[in-house]
Automatic annotation (TrEMBL):
GO terms, molecular function: protein histidine kinase activity
Record's catalysed reaction(s): ATP + protein L-histidine = ADP + protein N-phospho-L-histidine
Originating species: Anaerospora hongkongensis
EC number(s) on file: 2.7.13.3
Residue stretches spanning the membrane: 12-31, 37-54, 61-80, 92-111, 118-139, 151-173
Residue stretches making up the Histidine kinase domain: 194-427
UniProt cross-references to InterPro entries, sorted A to Z: 2C_sensor_his_kinase (IPR050980), HATPase_C_sf (IPR036890), HATPase_dom (IPR003594), His_kinase_dom (IPR005467), Sig_transdc_His_kin-like_C (IPR004358)
UniProt KW keywords: Kinase, Membrane, Phosphoprotein, Transferase, Transmembrane, Transmembrane helix, Two-component regulatory system
SMART domains in alphabetical order: HATPase_c
Name of the protein: histidine kinase
Organism domain of life: Bacteria
PROSITE patterns: HIS_KIN (PS50109)
């Protein structure tokens, strides 16, 4: 399979970075016998990386690590020691054989294929480590008087310890990878849910507008019939009838276009069997993550808490997201640079209640009756000179009423505001079983 240039660049970067990591960690070591032979941490790191990155070529990678490690040791001891370069290189070069043998055995024993069976993986890694160490010892000068049994026991013990560290490190890396992947998926799902909720809101208003157009078209057609059958004193009956009919035709064309748009959006948003329902706790979590990302990006010192007394399953999750998101964004604007917002779900008889409270600037008593009117807004941008559209709370009111619910607000200047949405349980909760 031909690899593309970006993949080759990524592969070379991976190999270079991992070789540097193994080389540096190889400087963490102990001398078990004399000042020539050593056990290093680098081999545990090398083994872990070989298992975690299957694209790393075992033989080439370990040989490259061996070359870099011998070069680093030679350079360090040459500059800080009294030996000549030849003597220093001769003293450290046997370690190169260790990495050659290790890479060959790692590939021949196909250790990667046994990673799901951890005891077997530990056994094979221990065997590979021990045989590589024995091969290195064959090139070493005569050791201090040490029994072969002690040497073998030390080599096997070190191999076992490093193999256990390797497998444990591999498992931790896999778990961390799974955690990061899960977090990315949750973030993506939250963003997708927020986008879908906004589309659902727009679809609601398209459907509402379509019904309004239908009513206007019926009245226009009724006017056409009236004009067509009644005497017109000015003698313009025919002209007026034609104009009324033309209006009805144009509105009908608009209605057909709306119908096409609505059908298209409904097909796009048609939920699968897995996403038809969500628990309220999941909905609140998605909203919370979205709000916290917004607050972090806007550098506002605003805290927010979410509480719920009942974790029910609902098919109206997109509507709940739209309702609470609008109220929370209003609360953030009211708080300014700092403040606290609380989002709460409670139960009142046969109703589900959502509350959004803030300790922001509050609302004038004479404005409370107007806040849900389309176009009413007190938000003004000093930078652009534009006033807000004032549609957020109007959306909240219309969406709430579409679920046979009510929305209310209580507030006073300087003491924040409290918005409360009350919706009948049967409109929200899915009965299982």
């Amino acid at each position: 399979m031909t690899r593309t240039l970006p993949n080759l660049v990524r592969q070379h970067r991976l190999e270079l970075n991992t070789i540097m990591l193994v080389t540096l960690t190889s400087m963490v070591f102990i001398y078990p016998f004399d000042n020539h032979f050593r056990f290093t941490l680098g081999i545990a790191v090398l083994s872990t990386l070989l298992l975690y990155f299957p694209e790393l070529p075992a033989v080439r990678f370990t040989i490259a690590c061996g070359v870099c490690i011998v070069a680093l040791r030679t350079a360090i001891y040459f500059f800080i020691g009294p030996e000549e370069l030849d003597d220093t290189l001769f003293r450290h070069s046997p370690a190169f054989l260790y990495y050659v043998i290790f890479g060959i055995l790692f590939k021949l024993l196909s250790i990667r294929t046994f990673i799901d069976n951890l005891p077997v993986a530990v056994l094979l890694l221990t065997l590979t480590d021990a045989l590589s160490n024995l091969a290195e010892l064959l090139l070493r000068p005569t050791l201090q008087p040490v029994s072969f049994d002690l040497i073998l026991a030390s080599i096997v013990s070190a191999g076992l310890v490093r193999s256990i560290i390797t497998v444990y490190g591999y498992v931790l890396l896999k778990q961390y990878h799974a955690f990061v992947l899960e977090q990315n998926q949750l973030k993506h799902y939250a963003e997708l849910t927020m986008m879908t909720a906004k589309l659902k809101t727009e679809l609601f208003y398209l459907q509402k507008s379509s019904q309004d157009i239908e009513n206007v078209m019926e009245r226009s057609y009724w006017l056409y019939n009236q004009l067509n059958h009644n005497e017109d004193e000015a003698g313009n009956r025919e002209s007026n009838s034609a104009s009324a009919l033309e209006i009805a035709r144009e509105i009908h064309e608009v209605k057909k276009d709306y119908a096409r748009v609505i059908t298209g959006i409904e097909n796009i948003l048609k939920p699968s069997s897995l996403e038809q329902f969500m628990n309220l706790s999941e909905v609140l979590y998605i909203i919370e993550q979205n709000v916290r990302r917004y607050l972090a990006s806007s550098n506002k010192a605003i805290s927010i808490t979410f509480d719920h007394t009942e974790d029910f399953k609902t098919g109206r999750h997109y509507t709940i997201v739209s309702l609470l998101d609008n109220l929370i964004m209003n609360a953030i604007d009211a708080c300014g640079k700092s403040g606290h917002i609380r989002v709460l779900q409670t139960t009142s008889g046969t109703d589900i209640v959502f509350e959004v409270r803030d300790n922001g600037c509050g609302i004038h008593s004479q404005e409370i009756a107007l806040v849900f009117q389309p176009g009413f807004s007190t938000k003004f941008s000093l930078q652009t000179g534009k006033i807000s559209t004032g549609l957020g709370l109007s959306h909240v009111k219309n969406l709430t009423e579409s679920l046979k619910g009510t929305v209310s607000v209580s507030s006073s200047i300087g003491k924040g505001a409290r918005f409360m949405i009350t919706i009948p349980r049967e409109e929200l909760i899915i009965r299982e079983g």
